[in-house]
Write a structure and sequence with these properties.
It contains ten helices and 13 strands. It has 320 residues and is α/β, with parallel strands linked by helices.
Amino acid sequence: MTETSKAILIAGPNLSLDRTIAVDEISVGRIHRARRRDARGGGKGANVARALRSVGTHARVGGFVAGATGDAIRSLLGHEGLHVSTIEVEGESRSCLTVLARESTTVFNEEGPSIEGRAWERFEDLILENVPEKGILVCSGSWPPGAPVDAVAGLVRGAVARGCFTICDTSRAQLQRALEAEPDLIKPNLAEARALLDPDAPPEPVDEGAGALDRAAGYATRLAELGPKAVVCSAGSQGAVLVAGADLWRFPALPIEAVNPVGAGDSMVAGIADALARDGDLVSAVRWGTAMAAASCETFAAGLLDGDRARRLYASSSAI
């Protein structure tokens, strides 16, 4: 691949201390003994940067930190070689736990510190003062409590004014308001798209099995009518779809031996941003994102992947 011609900045405000443990099985009310463990600075934005670094691309992340946990997050991310700019706030940064068992993956996510006073304005200034001219801005993950409901929309508008390509991988009210700013691309998963379009429908798992790509295509088509220039809707182990204008492509899942599916969506976003930063076309970018997502599922920690493995998967991938 060629060197990136566009810089990438990631707005991932809800940084966290991410712990992953593996157990034989999980059962309520029992003491469990972990047979494997990992701890690192995380959150979806950090995962995107980690996945990019795995394939040789560097990006900067902006986020909030609070308390002793925030100090640990900042130290761990720096030790890992990720470039992170932080805004300190009161309270305590969140911790998140992923429990991998043989038959299931269980995730516990805390909410994050509350954003009060001028903290959001400081963060918005941090992002918009550093957003690369004609580069790529990725808005990734959940937004901490207290952040304005149109926080993502404001960042998108500011980045567009600087000629940036904008990618939104968020959910709920933030995604709904971001649509009004007409981002270049949004990337919900199946459950997030369904929650936005059919809020009264009962919850469904991300990985729906047979027919998931068809449902993802339907959701992506409906979302594309609400403002974004393109929509990628991922459907877990079934693959993903892309809707851009009147065109729709399906990206079937790639054959892998899954270890940890958490962070696959972040790796997909990383791949899309990486390819676009190298002046690739959108279809090839989603193919590369799909390959990076698949490769990340084969690693224990979220966002980590083998770049050579991703390149081999990309060579075997297709868009139909």
